[in-house]
Amino acid sequence: MGAPTWAWVSRRAEVRAIEMAQDHLDKIIEVAEASLDLFRKFASGSVEETREAYARVHQAEKEADDIKRTMFRELSRGFIHPIDREELVRLLLTSDDIAAYLKAASRRATLIDPGEIADDVRNHVVNIVEKVSESTRLLKEAIEALVSNADRALELADDIERLEEEVDEIRIEALAEVLRICDETRVSACIIAKEIVDSVENSEDKCEDAADVVRSIAALS
């Protein structure tokens, strides 16, 4: 009787942890959407609107951190098998990195007049963040599928990987433009442009890393 009861408690705890991971992803999605709004304003050349948009990015990322801390407390209670707990912690931390990189990119965008960065670079950044936003939504759907349909979770993970490959190509084009403008603009603008491109690309890399964790959890299911 004891073993089945413990298995039921453990399974219930895992489902609860996955539900909290979904709540965390809701906030990551919000960060991505807020960042996309910010970079669209950045692409339009509006200094003031870009800075105003940052407040929403900052608040959503802060709320994601609050959920992360709550989830860590839940996971520390020990009702989940150590292997499963390790994978859920990896998922939590990797997902959190998506928001962290987006926040960093958004913060850098507030440090400069968008007009100092070439239109093509700004448009490439918007394109990347659109794909990051799409990846975060797919990631949430994949996490939801872990509870009932592991095969679907794997398919969604593959979709995220394809988006990451697309972002790699866009990044190369964006960096080629950055290198070109480095000969024509202030050093500070060149540095910030490259850091923005790198940060948004890193956020998509983290989406793929999180998708790999989903694959690992699905394999354990």
Describe the structure.
Helices cover 88% and strands 0% of the residues. The protein contains six helices and no strands. α1 runs antiparallel to α2 (47-75), α1 runs parallel beside α3 (82-109) and α3 (82-109) packs antiparallel against α6. With 221 residues, it is mainly alpha-helical. Residues 1-9 have low confidence and may be disordered.
Brief sketch in words of this structure:
The protein has 221 residues and is an all-alpha fold. Helices cover 88% and strands 0% of the residues.
The percentage of residues in β strands lies in under 5%
Calculate the terminal CA-CA distance, rounded to whole Å: 23 Å
Q: Helical proportion?
A: over 70%
CATH architecture classification? Up-down Bundle
* CATH homologous superfamily designation: Phosphate transport system protein phou homolog 2, domain 2
Mean pLDDT: 88
Largest sheet: none
Tell me the total number of β-strands: 0
Please give the structural blueprint:
Layout: H1 2-44, H2 47-75, H3 82-109, H4 119-146, H5 150-181, H6 187-220
Keywords:
221 residues; mainly alpha; Methane Monooxygenase Hydroxylase, Chain G, domain 1; 6 helices; elongated
